[in-house]
Amino acid sequence: MKITVLTVGKIKEKFYTAAIDEYSKRLSRYCKLNIIQVADEKTIENSTEKEMDIIKAKEGERILKNIPDDAFVITLEINGKMLDSEELADKINKLGIMGESHIVFVIGGSLGLHQDVSKRANFKLSFSKMTFPHQLMRVILLEQIYRSYRIINNEPYHK
């Protein structure tokens, strides 16, 4: 299985980079992992709705250019469906059984995802009703993908 994590913006903090590197290394025995970062747009404080939509549209175009037509797309959205770890593992496993060979997880920028990206999603996933920094969300997502593969392979992992 090929897993792509498609994100907006770069990681600036070394501790996030270290965690991402660790989970990437752990995942290498289960899947072919690719992390793609697209540029984020500068957000001006007190932006209008129209200005924020323009920013999300620009970021959205960059995201959509990096999604292959045949990929199964899972967007991370506050209003998506919440799954527990076992359900996420089951989802990933069933996608593989159904012949999906490429899953793309999409994490938006600080303003979220543009509606065009959300429309491209095959599945909308929510980790919480809370908002997380997108850099931290990468670590959380990679940890959950790793946990999913441990569950799929009936391997022990802390609960």
TrEMBL record:
Report the locations given in the UniProt record: Cytoplasm
Which UniProt keywords are given for this protein, alphabetically ordered?
Answer: Cytoplasm, Methyltransferase, rRNA processing, S-adenosyl-L-methionine, Transferase
* Catalytic reaction list: pseudouridine(1915) in 23S rRNA + S-adenosyl-L-methionine = N(3)-methylpseudouridine(1915) in 23S rRNA + S-adenosyl-L-homocysteine + H(+)
Entry's InterPro entries? Alpha/beta_knot_MTases, RlmH-like, tRNA_m1G_MTases_N
Q: Which GO terms describe its molecular function?
A: rRNA (pseudouridine-N3-)-methyltransferase activity
Pull one GO CC term from this UniProt entry: cytoplasm
Question: What Enzyme Commission number(s) apply to this enzyme?
Answer: 2.1.1.177
Name where it mostly resides.
Answer: cytoplasm
Cited Pfam families: SPOUT_MTase (PF02590)
The record lists S-adenosyl-L-methionine as bound by 76, 108, 127-132
Subunit and partners: Homodimer.
What the protein does comes down to: Specifically methylates the pseudouridine at position 1915 (m3Psi1915) in 23S rRNA.
Q: Would you tell me the protein name for this molecule?
A: Ribosomal RNA large subunit methyltransferase H
Organism source for this protein? Answer: Eubacterium ventriosum
Q: What taxonomic lineage is listed for the species of origin?
A: Bacteria, Bacillati, Bacillota, Clostridia, Eubacteriales
- Provide the gene name from the record: rlmH
